[in-house]
Amino acid sequence: MPLVSMRQLLDEAAKGGYGVGAFNVNDMEQIQAIMMAAKETRSPVIVQASRGARQFAEDLYLFRLIQAAAELNPEIPIAMHQDHGNSFETCKSAIALGYTSVMMDGSLKEDGKTPSSFEENVDVTRRVVDYAHERGVTVEGEIGVLGGVEDGHGAGGSGLDHITDPDQAVEFAEKTGVDALAIAIGTSHGAYKFTKKPDGSVLKMDVLIAIHKRLPHTHLVMHGSSSVPKDLQDEINKDGGKLNETWGVPVEEIQLGIRNGVRKINVDTDNRLAITGAIRKVFAETPEKFDPRDYLKPAREAMKKVVALRMTQFGQAGHAGDYAPIPITEIAKGYANGTLSTQPLVAAK
Ligand code: 13P
Q1: Ligand 1 centre from 125 Cα, in Å?
Q2: 189 Cβ inside 6 Å of ligand 1
Q3: Contacts of 129 (CB under 8 A, 6+ apart)
Q4: 3-class SS at 181?
Q5: Could you report the per-residue pLDDT of 283-303, keeping only the tens digit for each?
Q6: Which of 131, 147, 298, 303 could hold 33 in an S-S bridge, CB 3.0 to 4.6 Å?
């Protein structure tokens, strides 16, 4: 199957009432782990690369690996997404490579660190939407600012610093025409999200629900959605790792989000933890080994397990065969003739 539009994937998820995991990749083993999980659970999937990942792997290596994944798994709808694009140029270069979706994170300035103004965010996101939609490519925007830093991108600080204002979310969706909207509800990138199991004082599911009530047909995106499970932390620490105790986003909160308009769930940290734990185990138990395959294989298997579990928990499992891919050129026509809406339905307060 060719790479599919993320918009199609999310529209289908909305119809089916489920969420779709968006898993970050940097290398072949991570891509293979995701595809093994998608195949096993028969899941449509979003694969995403940050700017850091594109730099680390080099654009062409990474993109060709994704093409190989699509070719080897014709039964799986895959959307290839630019995670946290920092500028029009970053998004344009991803589109030139063949990515079927981009995130224009205009919540931060181009340095990827300084929060921008609402007007700046609308302006750059709108420009990306116009450019991308002409080419049938999906756009995710962000309103409010996530906490933490990922791959050098992020304002840092707490997830509570810039929670999304529901009125601004409505205005942003109307003015930009984005296909998917990332909102800030107290989560942050990385392992250190919460100092105890999060409750409503730090994880603002009420804000998410309020936004969904105003924008009932807008695909919402939860970033920073790793659950940072204790068993993965323990696995690392038992073999010499030094992670401090920490909490992520409980899966049941993500499932509550999915019941309230969340269609894309970003997960990176859980996979990093699984990979590191598996590699540490091999090093600790069999220090005489030095063939990278001896630790990359268990690492890939450990990531596959986490991804397959999330696919089941998010509800995307079993939906790979529900629909045929719409060619990107047809998607572009849909944006142009209005059959693919870019104006959100807004409900009264
Ligand atoms: P985690 O760090 O919680 O996995 O979040 C990843 C993410 O949001 C990527 O954009």
Answers
A1: 21
A2: yes
A3: 104, 139, 141, 176, 177, 178, 342
A4: strand
A5: 999 999 999 999 999 999 999
A6: 303
